[in-house]
Recover the amino acids of this structure.
């Protein structure tokens, strides 16, 4: 988290370490609530109310924690909060109303509208304009000694806006200082966030409209938006319903009282979530709320445009651009000392994607992570979400082959807060390789928050394809013949080499498109991969898993409190797969924390936890004599996912050996096991390895290890009758004699364990034409089921 040096009274520009993906998560409202409560506890946020607006509806709304700890009163959707600097967009809209009426002009001197004259003491001949004020380039500076001295508690201030500004900005004023009221740059040629400047915008509204600022705002902004409980004055509020503000000192919450100041336009509007939703709906509806046009679409676009891109690239007209997520809005918060700018409120929206997030809180900590999750949830939100998918194909193997019919069974969830009736679900293909035979399913009723009782059934038929691949589909939902939502999904055609199992339920699984790191690494090895969400795909079983060369399972992206890592039924499935001779690669930074006390962790993963959290900012070193020899990398930075908050360290148990260690602690950072099955386990996220080339190299080494020679029980007597000659072979020629009727798999490996040749062979004497092999010693494996015959083969 970037810590700003400048003290900002009500605003901090938002910086987030990883941009959000555009993928479609299936996070439930219950999971989102759990995530929020977890973050509130971690960051000492007493109470919080938040909402998501999407496509003109309230997609989600919730309140958590305590608005008053002394009275033990919980936060609710009707709790009032102080907006702090999220007030500024309201002031900006109001000023631009006057601009539309021709009463003010952005590039005119502010002195045209004031009863007194303001001049920058170092540049007295330069005009300060409205545009400069609203984009924080006017050169007016916040003097925190003055501002804090004028702060009042539990009562409204005893001086008005004009009196404060005249004493602050005019020579001889009680609060004036040439070096403390003004910055050292020419107006318009530098940038410094200014609450006093925003207050001056509000005073100009007062002067031009001939109405007190608060009165103008009530008549022209709050009343049209039906914000009937919103006000600038504590005297107008029932303070029993107003969220108390808290700071945390010595691990104790301390009530700060209800704060006020004469800088109403910069940050002293009180409101509640349902009324803030109305403001957001107006922004997302091009300035219109329930038929009233508060501001024109063209003016709103101007407001959300950088005014001085060279010196203040993220400032519009009292709106701010959050560049990581490419959204406009404002945050709000307060720090009396300037050492920690505590953001407490946020109002941000994405006009293009038609969603907005509102957040109000009263705690000590900054709710950045909660905002991140709300942005992700907003982007991914669907009224109807897919929660379960099962494929029944003709061969009953779960693999869609060429020219095969199958039935898709889909369960959906109503994520809205209202019951839905007469829903028609229509499946459309976005691929020429999939034909929809049974296209429509009807849902008579789906209650708010409920999952469909019976699956929606759709029949499909595959075409003739050459390579395994994803085939995109789209599920369209109609209510009374009106399209209300759609879901993108896909089916995988053909048999992939590798099965990727995504085992994540929380929002951070989409935070950095983690699955793509695995897909890219497998593709870099020249292999194909089928990705399955184990929480979505029904019917994952051992036979299906055995049809792949390897299974890569990733989980525990963020924290076990967000997601139960490898549930009991998943442990049983993995154990059965391993018992059947599986090839299993597990990557999880929290598996040890969640599973260390289980027999599954010790007996099947052959691991025990050393530390639940290692320092992620240290190199991971490959150990000599293992598949990781010579590999060194970081799990932070670079082009990795940067999601390692708590990588753990491990010991290897019962025949396993460590393959990686952390450079600073020398604790285990990965293990391999070779026995009746093969296993590689990393107690950190593979996706976080800092270079794509390193991820691909490690994936190649793991797949080579899985594919290498292996001693298997030789209890098939017929395998002993196999004859292989000539050996040594001067020309690399090879003949194999099998008993009549036998079929087996032939594989040849070089001395380093790399597979050089593979073929299905049948009974009788077979001359095998081999590719040119360099001279050396090779291993031949003839395998039938889980039994094999291993022989050395020498090429001269």
């Amino acid at each position: 988290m970037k810590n700003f040096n400048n003290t900002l009274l009500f605003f901090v520009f938002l910086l987030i370490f990883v941009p959000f993906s555009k993928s479609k998560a299936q996070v439930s409202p219950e999971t989102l609530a759990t995530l929020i409560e977890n973050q509130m506890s971690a960051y000492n946020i007493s109470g919080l109310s938040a909402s998501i607006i999407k496509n003109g509806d309230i997609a989600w709304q919730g309140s958590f924690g305590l608005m008053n700890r002394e009275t033990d009163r919980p936060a609710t959707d009707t709790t009032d909060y102080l907006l702090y600097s999220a007030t500024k967009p309201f002031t900006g809209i109001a000023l631009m109303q006057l601009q539309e009426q021709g009463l003010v002009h952005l590039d005119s001197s502010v002195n045209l509208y004031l009863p007194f004259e303001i001049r920058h003491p170092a540049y007295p001949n330069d005009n300060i304009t409205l545009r400069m004020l609203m984009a924080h380039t006017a050169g007016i500076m916040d003097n925190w000694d003055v501002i804090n001295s004028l702060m009042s508690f539990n009562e409204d201030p005893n001086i008005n806006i004009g009196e404060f500004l005249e004493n602050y900005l005019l020579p001889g004023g009680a609060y004036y200082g040439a070096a403390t009221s003004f910055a050292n740059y020419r107006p318009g040629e530098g940038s410094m966030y200014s609450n006093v400047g925003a207050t001056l915008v509000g005073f100009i509204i007062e002067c031009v409209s001939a109405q007190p600022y608060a009165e103008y705002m009530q008549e022209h902004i709050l009343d049209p938006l039906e914000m009937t409980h919103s006000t600038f004055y504590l005297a107008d509020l029932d303070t029993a319903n107003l969220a108390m503000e808290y700071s945390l000192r010595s691990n104790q919450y301390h009530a700060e009282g209800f704060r006020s100041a004469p800088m109403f336009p910069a940050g002293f509007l009180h409101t509640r979530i349902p009324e803030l939703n109305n403001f957001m709906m107006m922004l997302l509806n091009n300035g219109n709320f329930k038929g009233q046009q508060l501001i024109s679409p063209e003016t709103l676009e101007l407001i959300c445009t950088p005014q001085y891109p060279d010196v203040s690239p993220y400032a519009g007209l009292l709106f701010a651009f959050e560049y990581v997520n490419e959204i406009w809005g404002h945050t709000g918060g307060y720090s009396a000392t300037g050492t920690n700018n505590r953001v407490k409120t946020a109002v941000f929206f994405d006009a293009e994607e038609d969603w907005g997030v509102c957040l109000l809180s009263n705690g000590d900590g900054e709710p950045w992570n909660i905002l991140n999750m709300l942005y992700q949830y907003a982007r991914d939100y669907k009224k109807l979400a897919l929660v379960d998918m099962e494929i029944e194909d003709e061969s009953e193997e779960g693999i869609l082959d060429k020219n095969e019919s199958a039935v898709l069974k889909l369960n959906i969830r109503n994520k809205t807060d209202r019951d839905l009736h007469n829903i028609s679900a229509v499946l459309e293909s976005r691929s020429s390789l999939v034909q929809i035979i049974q296209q429509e399913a009807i849902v008579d009723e789906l209650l708010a928050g409920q999952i469909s009782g019976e699956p929606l059934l759709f029949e499909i038929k595959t075409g003739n394809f050459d390579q395994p691949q994803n085939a995109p589909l789209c599920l369209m939902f109609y209510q009374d013949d009106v399209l209300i939502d759609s879901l993108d999904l896909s089916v995988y055609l053909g048999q992939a080499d590798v099965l990727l199992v995504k085992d994540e339920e929380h929002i951070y699984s989409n935070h950095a498109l983690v699955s793509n790191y695995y897909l890219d690494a497998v593709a870099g090895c020249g292999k194909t991969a089928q990705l399955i969400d184990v929480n979505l795909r029904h019917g994952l079983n051992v036979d299906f898993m055995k049809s792949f060369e390897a299974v890569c399972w990733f989980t525990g992206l963020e924290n076990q409190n967000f997601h139960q890592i490898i549930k009991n039924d998943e442990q049983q499935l993995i154990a059965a797969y391993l018992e059947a001779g599986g090839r299993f690669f597990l990557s999880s930074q929290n598996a040890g924390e969640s599973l260390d006390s289980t027999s599954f962790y010790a007996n099947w993963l052959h691991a025990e936890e050393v530390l639940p959290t290692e320092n992620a900012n240290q190199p991971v070193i490959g150990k000599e004599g293992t598949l990781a020899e010579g590999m060194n990398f970081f799990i932070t930075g670079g082009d990795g996912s940067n999601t390692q908050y708590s990588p753990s360290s491990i010991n290897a148990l019962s025949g396993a050996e460590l393959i990686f260690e952390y450079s600073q602690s020398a604790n285990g950072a990965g293990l391999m096991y070779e026995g009746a099955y093969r296993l590689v386990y990393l107690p950190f996220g593979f996706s976080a390895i800092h270079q794509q080339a390193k991820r691909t190299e490690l994936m190649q080494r793991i797949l080579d290890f899985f594919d290498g020679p292996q001693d298997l029980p030789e209890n098939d007597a017929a395998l002993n009758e196999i004859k292989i000659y000539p050996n040594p072979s001067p020309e690399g020629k090879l003949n194999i004699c099998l008993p009549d009727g036998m079929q087996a798999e032939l594989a040849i490996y070089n001395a380093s364990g790399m597979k050089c040749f593979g073929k299905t062979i049948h009974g009788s004497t077979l001359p095998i034409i081999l590719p040119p092999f360099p001279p050396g010693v090779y291993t031949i494996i003839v395998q039938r089921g889980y039994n094999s015959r291993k022989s050395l083969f020498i090429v001269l």
In short: The CA atoms of residues 740 and 789 lie 17 Å apart. The longest helix spans residues 692-707. The radius of gyration is 33 Å.
